[in-house]
Amino acid sequence: MQLNSSIVVPQDIRQVWRFLGDPLTAPRWDRSIAEVVPLSTAPVGVGYEAMTIAPSGKRQRFRITQYDAERELVFVLLESRLFRRAELSFRLDRVPDGTRILHRIDLDLRSPLLAPVLRLTTRKALGADMEYLRGALAGDAHC
User: Fold this and answer.
1) What is the DSSP string of 35-48?
2) Each residue of 104-131: pLDDT tens digit?
3) Contact, 21 vs 66, CB < 8 A?
4) How far apart, in whole angstroms, are the C-alpha atoms of residue 75 and residue 65?
5) DSSP-assigned beta bridge partners for residue 86
6) How far is 124 from 129, CA to CA, in rounded Å?
7) Within 13 Å, how many C-alpha atoms sit on residue 82's CB side?
8) How far apart are CA 77 and CA 138, in angstroms?
9) How far apart are CA 15 and CA 19, in angstroms?
10) Under a CB-based contact definition with an 8 Å cutoff, are residues 133 and 25 in contact?
């Protein structure tokens, strides 16, 4: 199952990368994340691991698998009851009006019965999160 969402923001690609390439900014725009706890001592890049804590207290561990500055960030969920595999990515492209951010989620579900429900709920939430990302970028003093 694959979900895609994209937005164009007026910020330069370098500014967007500084914000989006830092996992600690996720709680500022992803409503499913209340806190990010770094698990790696190394700088953010391929192999970097972090744990996210949802407002409900649910915890998930992620590992960055691709980190191409100003281009693409890919990370995988390390363990899940719902997914055999979950990969999330952000791709940045320069466009005349600023930067296009493409967010893709690839899910391999443990039960195919979950697909219709996840498509309905996740697609709407993904679009809302992208709008929150636009707002966070607009309000970020470093952008």
Assistant:
1) EEEE--SSPSSTT-
2) 988 887 667 666 666 666 667 777 888 8
3) no
4) 5
5) 107
6) 9
7) 11
8) 28
9) 7
10) no
